[in-house]
């Protein structure tokens, strides 16, 4: 009996070049169907599941198909509510001349997938420029938003952080300054993310999103570093872009190299290909697998996936990604000597940060 995750990965691969055409040829018993149904809903791949069921690639009973469709309809209803939230937030940002980009689910569903209903999501992700980050956050708070966490010191996020999740009643907006926390987030040239935006049609209007190369790189960062165990939908995003979008592999690898993130892209592609069981090849796949990331990148990766990995470890390792003594001093002092409210919110914060610092004290600059 396959585990729910293994079956969910097979579902997530459905329709991709090089994916196995048949997932399962006999309807599952209830002991297997129930956990898979829940895993598919939790990991937001109901669109691929319904597509596989309708194509006959996943055998099921009439009752199971009806249940899967109801789950998918609930996911689509949430997608529509979130799209409306994105449009409203975008209008506020436009009125305040705050530049932003739509990320992940909302952008990917309308750009790299053949039908937007294939790619569902559970929140909204927006990217704003560091210098406008505080203003963007203030606008959302003014609209009733509540940030889940504070900052170690005022201005830390706009200079060094990944971002923060803002609760908007029962919904959430993740406001990003960069893709991830720690060394790989600090090494990204965020100016690259605001060049040459594309317009995504959404709810009768248009929202700006990342162009092809940064869009693919963001999918890689999310798949390789976003969760302890990569979600099927994140792996599907990487494979979907790589197999259906024309990308100049020299440009992709040059940008990843400049961001000091070749190993992130390589890890994401390997996770996607192995996890989804794909066999297709293309020039970008070969270029990614042929890359030779620097030792400093391999050491930085351990802060995200190695033993003892944590946000604190990533934060400590981030010191080496910053250029110059002044930036490093400002970063370290904010984390080592945060304001009282921030430390109080995180019981044992300083002890964890000291342990994380010990883990990376022999690290070298990520260059």
Describe it for me?
There is one protein chain. The chain is of the alpha+beta class and 367 residues long. The chain folds into 2 domains: 4-293, Beta Polymerase, domain 2 (2-Layer Sandwich); 294-367, no CATH class. 54% of the residues lie in helices and 9% in strands. It has 18 helices and 7 strands. The chain has helices at residues 4-12, 30-42, 46-55, 62-95, 104-109, 133-142, 156-160, 182-186, 212-225, 232-244, 249-258, 262-276, 283-290, 295-305, 311-317, 325-336, 340-345, 349-359, and strands spanning 100-103, 124-128, 146-147, 163-168, 171-176, 198-202, 205-209. The strands form 2 sheets. It has a 5-stranded mixed beta sheet. A two-stranded antiparallel sheet has the order 6-7. Helix 1 (4-12) crosses helix 2, helix 1 (4-12) runs parallel beside helix 10 and helix 10 packs across helix 12. The model is unreliable at 362-367 (pLDDT under 50).
Q: How many DSSP-defined strands? A: 7
Widest sheet: strand ordering: 1-2-5-4-3
SSE succession: HHHHEHEHEHEEHEEHHHHHHHHHH
Unreliable stretches: 362-367
Layout of SSEs?
Blueprint: H1 4-12, H2 30-42, H3 46-55, H4 62-95, E1 100-103, H5 104-109, E2 124-128, H6 133-142, E3 146-147, H7 156-160, E4 163-168, E5 171-176, H8 182-186, E6 198-202, E7 205-209, H9 212-225, H10 232-244, H11 249-258, H12 262-276, H13 283-290, H14 295-305, H15 311-317, H16 325-336, H17 340-345, H18 349-359
Parallel strand pairs: 2-5
Antiparallel strand pairs: 1-2, 3-4, 4-5, 6-7
Helix pairs in contact: 1-2, 1-10, 3-4, 9-10, 9-11, 9-12, 10-12, 11-13, 15-18
């Amino acid at each position: 009996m396959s585990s729910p995750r293994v079956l969910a990965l097979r579902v997530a691969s459905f329709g991709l070049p090089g994916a196995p055409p048949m997932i399962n040829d006999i309807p599952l018993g209830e002991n297997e169907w129930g956990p898979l149904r829940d895993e598919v809903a939790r990991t937001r791949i109901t669109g691929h599941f319904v597509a596989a069921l309708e194509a006959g690639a996943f055998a099921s009973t009439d009752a199971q198909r009806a249940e899967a469709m109801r789950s998918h309809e609930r996911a689509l209803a949430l997608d529509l509510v979130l799209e409306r939230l994105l449009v409203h937030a975008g209008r506020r940002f436009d009125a305040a001349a705050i530049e932003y980009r739509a990320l992940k689910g909302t952008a990917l569903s309308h750009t790299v997938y053949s039908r937007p209903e294939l790619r569902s999501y559970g929140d909204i992700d927006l990217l704003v420029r560091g210098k406008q980050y505080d203003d963007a956050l203030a606008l959302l708070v003014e609209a009733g938003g509540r940030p889940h966490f504070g900052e170690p010191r005022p201005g830390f996020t706009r200079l060094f952080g990944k971002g923060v999740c803002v609760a908007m009643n029962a919904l959430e907006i993740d406001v990003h300054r960069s893709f991830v926390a720690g060394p790989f987030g600090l090494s990204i040239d965020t100016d690259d993310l605001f060049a040459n935006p594309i317009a995504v049609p959404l709810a009768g209007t248009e929202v700006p999103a990342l162009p092809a190369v940064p869009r693919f790189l963001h999918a890689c960062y999310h798949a390789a570093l976003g969760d302890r165990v990569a979600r099927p939908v994140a792996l599907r995003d990487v494979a979907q872009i790589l197999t259906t979008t024309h990308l100049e592999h020299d440009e992709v690898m040059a940008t990843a190299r400049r961001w000091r993130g070749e190993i992130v892209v390589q890890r994401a592609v390997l996770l996607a290909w192995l996890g989804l069981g794909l066999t297709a090849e293309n020039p970008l796949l070969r270029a990614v697998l042929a890359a030779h990331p620097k030792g400093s990148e391999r050491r930085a990766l351990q802060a995200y996936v190695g033993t003892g990995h944590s946000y604190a470890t990533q934060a400590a390792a981030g010191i080496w990604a910053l250029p110059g003594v002044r930036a490093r001093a400002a970063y370290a002092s904010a984390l080592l000597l945060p304001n009282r409210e921030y430390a109080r919110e995180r019981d044992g914060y300083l002890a964890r940060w000291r342990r994380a610092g010990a883990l990376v004290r022999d690290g070298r600059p990520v260059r």
